[in-house]
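worker-03 picked up job from queue 'complexes'. Input manifest follows; two sequence lines, order preserved.
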Amino acid sequence: MTELLNIEGLTTQFYTEKGIVKAVQDVSFSIKKGETFALVGESGCGKSVTALSIMRLIPDPPGKIVNGKISFNGQDLLGLKEKEMRAIRGNNISMIFQEPMTSLNPVYTIGDQIAEAIMLHQKKDIEASWREAVDVLRRVGIADPDQRVYEYPFQMSGGMRQRVMIAMGISSRPDLLIADEPTTALDVTMQAQILDLLDEIQKEYGMSVLIITHNLGIVAERADNVAVMYASRIAEMADANSLFKNPLHPYTVGLLNSIPKLGEEKQRLMAIPGNVPNPLRFPSGCRFHPRCPICNNDSRCMATEPQLEEKEPGHMVACWKV
Amino acid sequence: MNNSNKKADWGTSYGELVWKEFTKGKLNVVCLVFIIMLFIVAVLSPFIANDKPYFIVIDGLLYFPLFKELKATDYSVFLASLAGITQLLLIRRNRRKLDPSLRGSALLRQVTVIAGVLLLGIILIHVLIPHRLDAEDYKTMITSGKAEKALFAPIPYGYARTDLQNRELPPSPEHWLGTDDVGSDVLCRLIHGSRISLSVGFVAVGISTIIGIFIGAILGYFGGRVDFFGMRIVEIMMAIPTFFLIITIVAFFPRSLFNIMFIIGITSWTGDACFIRAEFYKLRKQDFVQAAKSLGLPLKSILFRHMLPNGVTPVLVNATFGIAGAIFIEAALSFLGFGVAPPTPSWGQMLSLGVSTTGRFLWWLTLFPGLAIFFTVLAYNLVGEALRDAIDPRLRQ
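worker-03 finished. Artifact:
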């Protein structure tokens, strides 16, 4: 498999009145063609900002991509002009948002909104675009698509709206689909359906999916490769199998331990002590050390930041203790 | 897609909801009817008040002096209002009957056809109707027996006709609202003046709304430094007393109707800009705007297709108040003598005649134009207020 997206040393900062928020720092990973890559982490760890940086949708001001390289299909995205970037957004890279209830424009029918994207990227006329919109709605499993195209977003349920969002995202058969917490706002049965749908479409279209989530359950089943983010940095990165079977970073271990498992004896869930650090004042050294169970006030952990290193074949970890 | 023969229910539209809420108040409907009647009067004013007869028979020959005397602008007004009504009906029909996917293109087609017909009509009128000047007095032709038969408009006086024998007459059966200092019929001038007042209101508000939306959209969407400096300019504009600015500008330009519309328009956009800026500031962080951006839509589509319809309601309400304000400013300017030049009738200018002439106070010259201004402005303000309440979902039960 060839590389589709390659990110190197991405650093995105927000200049606020209180100081500089380093939302993403020195993040590097790559996504191959056709694979599912998962970015996992707690709220505020920089997952979404990474995704928005790829789309170059960081609000500027106050945000800015200060460093790094994002190459997509061999093209340097950060060097593109805004106009060239617009031709990529929605066409080669699409994005699905967390909140399906508010991601659709309330004043237009869903057909209108899908057709607009099709007209823009595929240069089709209005009637062909609407036919295509019906097809793509059928593809994402909306019953009666030739009736539903005329409906307004408020006439649909959350799960259906997320299907519509997916339809908009895949309408121009992108190479990369970024799904930013696509199921967080949905109920559990809907979550599974939406994820299955994403899986199906991914196989059919042969596109890559960057799935951003805090739900390790999703990752275990569907992702090929996983990166765990903590406090704006990648803590651990490996293929899904080895990450779940053999987590190396204490943070990943903590995350996995905090998931309730079926068939286990009832006891208190293991929680990671402490809180997510304030992005304005990250701890010195390893950012995880105040909460780390294996650090034991090691001076190296407290003083210098560990870099991502390949500890096992294909398994990268940023920890001094591993 | 092939369900055009099936009658689909597209649900209750937002417009229908607002309309229902709006018509709950009796006074709102009265005001709206008043405004619509004012419109009809303004459009048809040459037919209601004219010193030329619809037809006249002279020596057994039939003439149509009124139609011959109408100017190209009159015909343009008729055609434009006709086109406007057709368009409104078409939009309604489109909503009822047409496949929503085709509405946009159908509307475009209809607008093109109507605009084409309009253009053709205006050209034809210019070519076919020669401006034959008949400066004769048709009324004396009847009394002197020169003409056998004639049919006059309900108010058989011209707004530019002077009749020095009948000047400064109080209301009488002949002149229902009296005559002014040069003997023109006040009612006739009032009717023709409604055109001036309404067109000033609409064109000025149109100009100011377009400027306001454009500037507000840019400030609200980009925010940051653009917004900071933009808002300072807006604030400087707001700090200047508009009316005195308008008087100053008017002094430099010839007294034409268009100049007045334009000047009122370019000085009163600040309110609209602030409304739109505030709305866009709120909207730009919303998910659907992010989603539109992530689809790679161009800026103008994001700003004016996706954001504007979601934030335009305060501006629409403000526009109704703006029309009332513009009518008021025009009346005030005309009253002070900065408005349109006579004999073009304008309500404010008529108002000023009541006190300026021979020292006598001519109450009918003050009262009737004053009432016209008062009721028009009141009607617009009440409609604006009702619209604001109807649009606000928090007040809806």
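worker-03 released lock.
Confidence is low (pLDDT under 50) at residues 1-8 of chain B.
Residues 289 and 393 of chain B are 22 Å apart (CA to CA).
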